[in-house]
């Protein structure tokens, strides 16, 4: 039996923040049943946004190229969106294509922006999605962000 993407949902902050690969349309109902109410799409292609809207998900399109780090402005938008959604009891799932590199980097960025150290954020990601953040440009961005928010 093939594993659906919903089974690849990984929790960072239970009932608040999750990571995952890009959900297929058939996964959206399962996501809703799992309590996810909001989705952040990191893909450069925003064609999934219409499906998210159609299926009742609050969403944020925050395109990050596969071989690039996010910007500080994107992290600010992400923090604002997640905090607003969580304030309204809307758990958020963040996805890129595979649910690792970009997703892990943005989730770690959120944790750092909310007060975690670089090491704490990396440990949290590694514990929940091993080897998600392994590219130098992602690690360097997170270190720079950590120094910036101190």
TrEMBL record:
InterPro entries in the cross-refs: Prot-tyrosine_phosphatase-like, PTP, Tyr_Pase_AS, Tyr_Pase_cat, Tyr_Pase_dom, TYR_PHOSPHATASE_DUAL_dom
Transmembrane segments annotated in the record for this chain: none
One MF term in the entry's GO annotations: hydrolase activity
Domain (Tyrosine-protein phosphatase) ranges: 5-150
Tyrosine specific protein phosphatases domain boundaries: 73-140
Keywords tagged on the record: Hydrolase
SMART domains associated with the record: DSPc, PTPc_motif
One matching Pfam family: Tc-R-P
Record's keyword annotation contains Thylakoid: no
Domain of life the protein comes from: Bacteria
Protein name: Protein phosphatase
Organism: Aliarcobacter cryaerophilus
Source organism phylogeny: Bacteria, Pseudomonadati, Campylobacterota, Epsilonproteobacteria, Campylobacterales
């Amino acid at each position: 039996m093939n594993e659906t993407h919903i089974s690849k949902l990984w929790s960072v902050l239970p009932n608040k923040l999750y990571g995952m690969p890009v959900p297929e349309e058939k996964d959206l109902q399962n996501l809703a049943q799992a309590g996810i109410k909001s989705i952040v799409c990191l893909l450069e292609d925003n064609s999934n946004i219409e499906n998210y809207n159609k299926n009742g998900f609050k969403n944020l399109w925050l395109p990050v190229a596969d071989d690039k780090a996010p910007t500080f402005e994107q992290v600010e938008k992400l923090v604002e969106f997640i905090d607003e959604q969580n304030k309204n009891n809307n758990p958020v799932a963040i996805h890129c294509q595979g649910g690792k590199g970009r997703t892990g980097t943005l989730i770690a960025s959120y944790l750092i922006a909310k007060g975690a150290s670089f090491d704490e954020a990396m440990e949290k990601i590694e514990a929940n999605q091993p080897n998600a953040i392994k590219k130098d440009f992602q690690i360097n961005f997170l270190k720079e962000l950590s120094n910036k928010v101190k």
